[in-house]
Amino acid sequence: MSSVTVSGPRPRFGGAAARLAAVARLTWPVRICAALLVLVVLGAVSAPWLAPYDPASGDLSSTLAGMSGDHWLGTDAGGHDTFSQLLAGGRTSLLGPLGVVVFSTVSGVLAGLFSAWRGGWVDALIGRVLDIMFAFPSLLLAILAVALFGKGLGAPVVAMAIAYMPYTARLVRGLTQQEKMRPYIAAYRVQGHSGTFIALRRVLPAIGPTVLAQSTVNFGYALLDLAALSFLGLGVQPPTADWGAMINQSQAAVLEGQPLSAVLPALLVVVVVVAVTVVGEHFGDRLSGREAKA
Amino acid sequence: MTGSARAALLAVDGLRVTVPGAGRPILDGVALTVRDGEAVALVGESGSGKSVTARTALGLFPAGADVSGSVVVGGTEVVGAGSGALKRVRTADAAMIFQDPRAGVNPVRRIGDFLTEPLRRIRGESKAAATARALELLGAVGLPDPPRHLRQFPHELSGGMLQRVMIAYALTADPRLLLCDEPTTALDVTTQAEIMAILARLRRERGLGMLLITHDLDLAAAVCDRVYVMYAGRIMEAAPSDVLIAAPRHPYTRGLLGSAPPLTGPLARLTPIPGAPLGLAETVGGCPFAARCPHAVPGLCDTTEPEPEPEVDGDSMVACLRAAELGASLIEETQGESS
Amino acid sequence: MTAPLLEAVGLRKAYGANVAVSDLSFTLEAGGALGLVGESGSGKTTTARMLIGLEQPDRGGILVRGKPLAHASRLERAKAVQIVFQDPYLSLDPRLTIRAALDDVLRLHGHPDRPGRIAELLDQVGLGEREAAARPRGLSGGQRQRAAIARALAVEPGVLVLDEAVSALDVSIQAQVLNLLADVRRETGVGIVFVSHDLAVVRYLCDEALVLHRGVVVERGPVEALLQDPRDPYTRLLISSVPHTGWSPEEISKQRRALIRG
């Protein structure tokens, strides 16, 4: 007789205790990221009340100031208070990607769901159109839109939403095709439910969480793209505050040895993109894990 | 018994497997023997631990499990064995056939490559020798056109044909013991008969011992010499097949027999076992079957663990506190039904 | 003369060159139970899917109480024929509790007293309050299949198609569900089409059976007569393939080869 313990991962059991253990094991980085996001969003939302200075008007008497009691994070070459600009810039920098994600998700879900649910030649046609749309790089499409419709937030957001739509549509199409094959969907048909009801009220909620996880990740990419556009001077125009635009405006400041007004918005862009991606992917992993278990 | 004189190919004794977080052990005090050339069945419902038991013979234990007891395969102790000993067991002593043949093959490799790989890599045979042996094995499992099958991909074969390829694959190791884990559950009934015929012939021609894992008590009794009945990780009853069917001594065995509708004879209403098989999360105090047993005595069966009582011949045992009292009445019930 | 409960006339279904079902006809009287027996590729599942309208026959038609199913509305069809699938875990919506799933069907069909009917259904299939409040994930295999049966019975269909409905269950649970189905048949008078590969189970539940082989009916008749005096060699093979004491798989294997060659 002998006794041994087999090494290896602990087996997975259902039950609340196991789920609690999984949450406790996984969430610390996710929790930090989520907290950072909440902080940034709160700052952006309450910018008008929190900002000590008007972010749009510069005080030419104190340009390129360092950190001080008057200007916590210094000022740029135009004398704009960096802290106030960061807060106010958060609004446009977050609002833009939000618009992209909302528009691309809604249109992508409708296109993907309709395509997969109808099937046949409709699905084949929509699939081809999506393939063609994939060929357009989002940033170039946005620059084209700016060339046609002028600078600002509106044109690039619309252009990028169109460029992002195929990603969501393809995901939704695949998930719907998969879900459509499941016996419980056949059971709904046998019970007499209409196709529209099953697609919108049963399939959509089933695939919704996975689509939302993808959209969260898309938000990060859109934020990065829009910031790049602003940095190139094609996006939001001064005096409206924006993180990408701030980096652009602060090139002189960097040369003058006061890089805070360039470094901080860049850092915020990175932090928000990383945090959004971490939270989104955690969300997605958990969903796919649940799928695998079921 | 003459059987006892034969060497044991597989001897499991006092096997206990526990995993953290479970309410009961996966296996508890499992003991069974498969002798040279003998066909033995391990019957149970889902979660009974029958597959886990078979896997231990290849040194495959659930991840994170605490294992105690003994599993001896062809003279080698598997529990706590090093990788060298395990490799010897897996490549020379025992081989396993699984329920779903498609899960066990690489879909993009030809049958020929799949079969010759172990021959060349483990036994070090030349390519020509390995191919010749693969052809011979495909013939031995009754496939009609071995040279053509060598060039085929798994998807070109039906489930029954692919299961025969898996048997041929198991034979590449030239094992003495064949572990068959529900080998026909995914197949049609007529294909099941075909696979069972091949296994019977292989056993006769090669003197293989077989451990058949199945949920089908009728199949087990029809093709095996002896049957072990498992429930919730324990052996409830063991007996020669005909004895087990005609005179079950454990209420669980009796319940299983009463659950299957008969194909011939009078058709009475089924007497199913109430409730559902015990989950891994549930705890056991006393007999694990007590909660579903029509003969359970409160205060006895749910508190006292039944000790397995072996018979004098060593081929039968029953783990029931009330086996002696119930003996005659269980047999009467069974025979009343089949007459 | 009144029309039979269910009538299939000359059903044919092909997928490309592969003919799944050819010229299949049968009738089912009210309260009757008909077994469709066959192995994989026999066309029994395709037939079941045609009966519930998930597949359209290439030729032939299905009549329920004399009315062609093809002309029925969605809701009429649902009230005419319902189905219980093989795997209840896959055929129940993972996101709905059993109570919500039942409520969903009843609401669709405009049932006047949904809570009352749900209580009745749960009682009929032997599920309690705890099971009603659970999602499929929280139930055992047998409980899930009971829930699927309750859902199929909710609208009081004329015909209940059971597609290998007990094959995936453990032996002891299978017996419970078989008894439940026998009770349902007796109490509601629902006509049953039982699709299965298992002759013993068909014998337990059905009066008559069709034996299907490669899309063709090779034999039909009362179950007991089929079992005791099978005429077709395939039926004989099927019967002798069922394991029993004194069984010789090698004999059956020879029989099977002869049949494939012939």
Task: State the main characteristics.
heterotrimer, B: 339 residues, alpha/beta, Rossmann fold, eight-stranded mixed sheet, four-stranded antiparallel sheet, C: 262 residues, ABC transmembrane type-1 domain-containing protein (chain A), transmembrane (chain A), transport (chain A), MetI-like_sf (chain A)
Spell out the blueprint of helices and strands:
The complex is a heterotrimer of chains A (294), B (339) and C (262).
Chain A: E1 2-5, H1 16-45, H2 47-50, H3 82-118, H4 120-134, H5 138-149, H6 154-180, H7 183-191, H8 195-231, H9 243-249, H10 251-255, H11 260-293
Helix pairs in contact in A: 1-3, 1-11, 3-4, 3-6, 3-8, 4-6, 5-6, 6-8, 8-9, 8-11, 9-11
Chain B: E1 8-18, E2 27-35, E3 39-43, H1 50-56, E4 66-73, E5 76-77, H2 83-93, E6 94-97, H3 111-121, H4 127-140, H5 146-151, H6 159-171, E7 177-181, H7 189-206, E8 209-214, H8 217-223, E9 226-231, E10 234-240, H9 241-246, H10 251-259, E11 309-310, E12 317-318, H11 323-338
Helix pairs in contact in B: 3-4, 4-6, 6-7, 10-11
Chain C: E1 6-15, E2 18-28, E3 33-37, H1 44-51, E4 59-64, E5 67-68, H2 74-80, E6 81-84, H3 88-91, H4 98-108, H5 114-125, H6 129-132, H7 141-153, E7 159-163, H8 171-188, E8 191-196, H9 199-205, E9 208-213, E10 216-222, H10 223-228, H11 233-240, H12 249-261
Parallel strand pairs in C: 3-8, 3-9, 6-7, 7-8
Antiparallel strand pairs in C: 1-2, 1-4, 4-5, 9-10
Helix pairs in contact in C: 4-5, 5-7, 7-8, 11-12
Can you characterise this structure?
The complex is a heterotrimer of chains A (294), B (339) and C (262). With 294 residues, chain A is mainly alpha-helical. Chain A has helices spanning 16-45, 47-50, 82-118, 120-134, 138-149, 154-180, 183-191, 195-231, 243-249, 251-255, 260-293, and one strand spanning 2-5. Chain A has a single domain (32-52, 75-287), classed as MetI-like (MetI-like fold), CATH 1.10.3720. With 339 residues, chain B is α/β, with parallel strands linked by helices. Chain B has one domain: P-loop containing nucleotide triphosphate hydrolases (Rossmann fold). Chain B has an 8-stranded mixed sheet with strand order 6-7-8-3-9-10-12-11, with helices on both faces. Chain B is globular, with a radius of gyration of 21 Å. Chain B starts with 7 loop residues before the first strand and ends with a helix. By secondary structure, chain C is an alpha/beta fold. Chain C folds into 2 domains: 6-231, Rossmann fold, CATH 3.40.50; 232-262. Chain C contains 12 helices and 10 strands. Chain C has helices spanning 44-51, 74-80, 88-91, 98-108, 114-125, 129-132, 141-153, 171-188, 199-205, 223-228, 233-240, 249-261; strands spanning 6-15, 18-28, 33-37, 59-64, 67-68, 81-84, 159-163, 191-196, 208-213, 216-222. In chain C, the strands form 2 sheets. In chain C, strands 6-7-8-3-9-10 form a 6-stranded mixed sheet, with helices on both faces. In chain C, strands 2-1-4-5 form a 4-stranded antiparallel sheet, with helices on one face. In chain C, β9 (208-213) and β10 form a beta hairpin. In chain C, α4 (98-108) crosses α5 (114-125), α5 crosses α7 (141-153) and α11 (233-240) packs antiparallel against α12. Chain C starts with 5 loop residues before the first strand and ends with a helix. Classes of the chains: A mainly alpha (294), B alpha/beta (339), C alpha/beta (262). Chains A and C meet through α7 and α8 of A and α2, β6 and α4 of C. β1 of chain A pairs antiparallel with β4 (66-73) of chain B, so a sheet runs across the interface. Chain B: Residues 10-257 form the ABC transporter domain. Chain B: GO terms for molecular function: ATP binding. Chain B: Belongs to the ABC transporter superfamily. Chain B: InterPro entries: AAA+_ATPase (IPR003593), ABC_Ni/Peptide_Import (IPR050388), ABC_transporter-like_ATP-bd (IPR003439), Oligopep_ABC_C (IPR013563), P-loop_NTPase (IPR027417). Chain B: Keywords: ATP-binding, Cell membrane, Membrane, Nucleotide-binding, Transport.
